[in-house]
Amino acid sequence: MSDKDATLLGPSSEPQRVAEAILRRAPQDLVFLMRFLGESQHLLQVHFRDHIAAGLAARGVTRERHPFLQAFIDSHATELREFVYTGMSLSRQFRIREIEELTGDSFQVLRMDIWDALVANIELAERRFAEEADALPALIASLEPSRAARGEGEGSGDDG
User: Fold this and answer.
1) Disulfide: which of 32, 97, 122, 127 matches 15 by Cβ 3.0-4.6 Å?
2) What is the Cα–Cα distance from 68 to 33, expressed in whole angstroms?
3) How far is residue 48's CA from residue 54's CA, in Å, rounded to a whole number?
């Protein structure tokens, strides 16, 4: 593609090129993971909440004696639930070729859908950055220590 052709494509040409490069790496880099949603999350959360509460009660730590114990139990039940589901996701991964075989996608329609979604999300991210870009120089400058605080004020003799 010539530079003139790239210019005619407009601002979305770079996201399209990036999406294409990413998709070329899909056989090596794209992994589909299991994710449990809805009531499955709740069921495991309740299991761990009850398990933790029973374990603490067996050691003399109860909700009646410790009013903030429920918050502790809930946060730890969430942590254990996420530990289980993350372990499941990592142990059961599918590559794009496996998904295409399972779904009978001989025309690689899934890859086209992924490409479309990549381009749309890259363009969205670029638009969000552009909306905030004008404020960034001032924000970055505010994060730097002042020149006076670093001893770089006028007349410091560092001019060389």
Assistant:
1) 122
2) 36
3) 10
For 144-155, give the secondary structure using H, E and C.
CCCCCCCCCCCC
Which contiguous run of DSSP H or E holds residue 29?
helix 26-29
77 three-state secondary structure: helix
Q: What's the half-sphere exposure (Cβ side, CA atoms, 13 Å) at 47?
A: 11
Instruction: Please state whether 151 falls in left (phi above 0), alpha (psi between -120 and 50) or beta.
Output: left
Contact 58, 112 (CB under 8 A): no
Residue-wise pLDDT for 74-83, tens only, equals 999 999 999 9
Instruction: State whether residue 94 is helix, strand or coil.
Output: strand
Contacts 24+ apart (CB under 8 A), 108-117: 111/23, 111/26, 114/23, 114/26, 114/30, 115/19, 115/20, 115/23
**For 94-142, how does the pLDDT look when each residue is reduced to its tens digit (9 = 90+)?**
999 999 999 999 888 999 999 999 999 999 999 999 999 888 888 888 8
| pTM metric for this prediction | 0.58
